[in-house]
Write a structure and sequence with these properties.
Number of strands: 13
Structural class: mainly beta
Largest sheet: 8 strands, antiparallel
CATH architecture: Sandwich
Number of helices: 2
Order of helices and strands: HEEEEEEEEEEEHEE
Distance between the termini: 33 Å
Helix content: 10-25%
Number of domains: 1
Radius of gyration: 18 Å
Strand content: 25-35%
Length: about 220
C-alpha cells in the first residue's frame, strides 16, 4: 500500500509539473472569457474583431480573472498612431486601488515617435514603465504595425522582450529595485510592497489598442 501511495504521489507531482509548463491561451481569438473590466464584472468596451482583442479607449483596463506568480507571457500588439497602452503584471485588484499600474510593474506600449508629449526613456516601448528603460530603441515597429512582446517572471527575475530581443532585465523586490521605487511616483502605492503574485492587465489609456496571440505558461 505504501508503495502504491508513493507512486500515486509521484504521478501527481509529474502531472502538476507538466501542466505548469503548458502553454495556455489567455485570449482564444473569439471571446473575452477569463477577463473582466478593472473593478468590475464581465467585459464592456473591449471587443473581439477578426481574431484580435481591441478597444477604442475609455473602456477601462482589462484584467485576468486568475493570478500568476512565475510565468512566461507572449503577445502581439498594435498601437494606434499617437497611442499609449501597456501590460501590467502582479496586479492587485482591491476596492481601494486607484489604478492597475499603481500595484504592479508595467511593460510599456506606446507610439515612441508619434506620441504628442515628450517621452523619457523610461516611458518608451518595452520599458519597465517609469523605472527602467529598454536597452535598444530601434527594435520596435511603427504604430499601426504588429509587434511581438514577451514578459518572463521567474523567482523575481524579470525580463521584457520585444520582437525577439531582450530589452529589460531586473530583479523584482531587490535592494536596487526598492531604492528605485522609493524615488518614483510609486513610493506610497501598493506597487512599493513586493508581492509574489497578481493578475495581468491590458491597459486602456484612452487610445485604440489591439492585442492577439496572447498566451501564457506557468513556470
Amino acid at each position: 500500500m505504501k508503495k502504491i501511495l508513493i507512486a500515486a504521489f509521484a504521478l501527481c507531482v509529474m502531472n502538476a509539473s507538466a501542466q505548469k509548463g503548458k502553454w495556455v491561451k489567455l485570449f482564444d481569438g473569439k471571446t473575452t472569457t477569463g477577463w473582466h473590466n478593472w473593478h468590475g464584472t464581465g467585459v464592456k468596451g473591449w471587443h473581439v474583431m477578426n481574431g484580435t482583442l481591441m478597444t477604442h479607449g475609455k473602456s477601462g483596463d482589462l484584467v485576468t480573472d486568475k493570478e500568476y506568480e512565475n510565468f512566461e507571457l507572449e503577445f502581439e500588439y498594435k498601437v494606434a498612431p499617437k497611442g499609449n497602452s501597456g501590460i501590467i503584471y502582479k496586479v492587485i485588484e482591491k476596492p481601494e486601488s486607484s489604478a492597475s499600474y499603481m500595484s504592479g510593474p508595467e511593460y510599456q506600449i506606446i507610439d515612441d515617435s508619434g506620441y504628442p508629449a515628450k517621452l523619457k526613456d523610461t516611458q518608451k516601448t518595452a520599458a519597465n514603465y517609469d523605472m527602467q528603460p529598454a536597452n535598444d530603441f530601434t527594435v520596435v515597429k511603427p504604430a499601426g504595425e504588429w509587434n511581438t512582446g514577451k514578459i518572463i517572471v521567474k523567482d523575481n527575475h524579470v525580463e521584457h522582450w520585444l520582437n525577439g530581443k531582450k530589452l529589460v532585465e531586473y530583479e523584482y523586490g531587490s535592494t536596487d529595485w526598492i531604492a528605485m521605487v522609493a524615488k518614483s511616483k510609486f513610493a506610497d502605492a501598493e506597487y512599493a510592497k513586493p508581492h509574489a503574485k497578481g493578475k495581468i492587465a491590458l491597459q486602456d489609456h484612452g487610445d485604440m489598442i489591439s492585442f492577439k496571440s496572447i498566451r501564457i505558461r506557468e513556470l
